[in-house]
Design goal:
The protein has 119 residues and is an all-alpha fold. The protein has one domain. Helices cover 80% and strands 0% of the residues. Helix 1 runs antiparallel to helix 3 and helix 5 runs antiparallel to helix 6 (88-115). The radius of gyration is 17 Å and the shape is elongated. The relative contact order is 0.13. The chain crosses the membrane at residues 29-52, 59-82, 88-112.
Length: 119
Amino acid sequence: MLIASTGGLAVDIAGSFFARGPEALLLDGVPGAAIGFIEAHGLAFILGVMLWRAESARSWHVVGAVVHLLLGTANFLFWQFFTLTGTLAAGYVTTSLHGFFVFGHLCALNAIRSEVPAH
């Protein structure tokens, strides 16, 4: 998530402030429209740092699963963005990785649940 969000921020900044890159087409004449892109990728970066540094606890795996579920679902719902900007490869990779990490967090949750003694 850290790598993808950093790349996303770079593309967002290039498209909104310098009219360069795949987002330039969408942001032509309305660079302020990138606020949502920049906020989303910035928040994904912050959450990525938090998840990277977090202890392996149920609550953090729930957060990780939900964050990746949200981001992967958003990719599906706005798939036309990847089509219009010619970034289908990035869409396939990032959406697949979100699915992979949802699965990984769910597996970790299951493993942690198995370790907790029943009362």
